[in-house]
């Protein structure tokens, strides 16, 4: 196994009128294609702009699901602007007068389960900038990776899939996402990918992937997974450990993670990884690398 690490010390991985409008005629449901990200400003904007982009994407998703069809290319553009709720905690605070309208709109748009999941994600649902994604793919290209089975755990809406280089297009894509809204959007954006909307701990395919790539969640908490519970991993370290068991021999793991993975005083996690993989490269990102997307 080969291990590539990006260190991120300060991470960030419709109007009311529009909401009530359901198209009278449904677009012809042609063969859906995977979305291609062409903008390097995806996910940028003020908190209110990000909120509006999220709501437009949610309304679009629910329209598609009500009509039982795939997204058109134009609708995929709207869906791709979903950035999650990281940094938007004010939208869930009934006491924030400046966000009173957004609070009511969000409560009305989501089911109780969706709302609870969205509120819980405000601390760690940050999406990866296209600039960082492109740099990771350039590094992989330099290593000679061309095609294979690619896994993105904790994929959000799939920005790594959306920026897959042309020369890697013959790869088979597999994604996992815990959040229901994000995972369902990802399915609409990448209909040719195999996407599981569930926790990473529920997946068990081993020695299968040639590349695992993504921006893993991190925080001062763990994940319940019987196979790894005895290690007491924090969530970001857990993603490394479980992913190493999922990639095939000579597979590559290329993750953005917190600086804690390599900086923590206790060497236990580093020793665990070193016994199972060779570190072939690490890049320490500046602390403003995700500023525009966080």
Structure write-up:
With 294 residues, this protein is α/β, with parallel strands linked by helices. The chain has 11 helices and 7 strands. It has helices at residues 16-19, 47-67, 73-80, 100-109, 112-120, 130-142, 159-162, 180-189, 235-246, 260-263, 268-274, and strands at residues 2-8, 149-153, 172-177, 194-197, 209-215, 247-258, 278-284. The protein has a 7-stranded parallel sheet, with helices on both faces. β3 (172-177), α8 and β4 form a beta-alpha-beta unit. α2 crosses α3 (73-80). The longest helix has 21 residues, at 47-67. The two termini are 31 Å apart. 40% of the residues are buried. The model is unreliable at 9-22 (pLDDT under 50).
* Secondary-structure element series: EHHHHHHEHEHEEHEHHE
- Number of beta-strand segments: 7
Rounded Rg: 19 Å
Q: Can you give the mean pLDDT?
A: 88
What's the number of helices? 11
Shape: globular
Structure classification: alpha/beta
SSE arrangement:
Layout: E1 2-8, H1 16-19, H2 47-67, H3 73-80, H4 100-109, H5 112-120, H6 130-142, E2 149-153, H7 159-162, E3 172-177, H8 180-189, E4 194-197, E5 209-215, H9 235-246, E6 247-258, H10 260-263, H11 268-274, E7 278-284
Parallel strand pairs: 1-6, 1-7, 2-3, 2-5, 3-4, 5-6
Helix pairs in contact: 2-3
């Amino acid at each position: 196994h080969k291990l590539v690490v990006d260190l991120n010390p300060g991470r960030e991985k419709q109007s009311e009128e529009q909401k009530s409008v359901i198209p009278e005629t449904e677009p012809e449901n042609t063969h859906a294609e995977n979305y291609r990200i062409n903008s390097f400003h995806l996910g940028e904007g003020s908190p209110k702009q990000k909120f509006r982009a999220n709501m437009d994407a949610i309304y679009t998703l629910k329209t598609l699901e009500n009509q039982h069809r795939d997204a058109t290319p134009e609708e995929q553009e709207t869906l791709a602007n979903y950035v999650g709720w990281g940094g938007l905690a004010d939208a869930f605070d009934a006491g924030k007068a400046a966000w009173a309208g957004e609070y009511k709109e969000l409560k009305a748009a989501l089911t109780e389960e969706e709302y609870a999941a969205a509120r819980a994600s405000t601390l760690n649902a940050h999406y990866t900038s296209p600039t960082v994604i492109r740099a990771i793919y350039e590094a992989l290209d330099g290593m000679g990776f061309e095609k294979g089975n690619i896994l993105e755990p904790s994929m959000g809406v799939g920005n790594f899939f959306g920026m897959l280089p042309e020369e890697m297009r013959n790869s088979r894509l597999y994604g996992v996402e815990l959040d229901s809204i994000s995972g369902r959007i990802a399915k609409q954006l990448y209909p040719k990918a195999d996407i599981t909307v569930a926790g990473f701990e529920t997946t068990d395919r081993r020695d299968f992937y040639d590349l695992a790539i993504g921006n893993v969640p991190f925080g001062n908490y763990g994940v319940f997974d019987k196979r790894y519970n005895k290690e007491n991993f924090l969530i970001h370290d857990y993603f490394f450990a479980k992913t190493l068991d999922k990639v095939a021999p000579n597979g590559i793991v290329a993750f953005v993670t917190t600086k804690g993975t390599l900086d923590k005083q206790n060497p236990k996690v580093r020793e665990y990884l070193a016994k199972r993989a060779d570190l072939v490269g690490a890049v320490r990102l500046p602390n403003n690398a995700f500023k525009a997307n966080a």
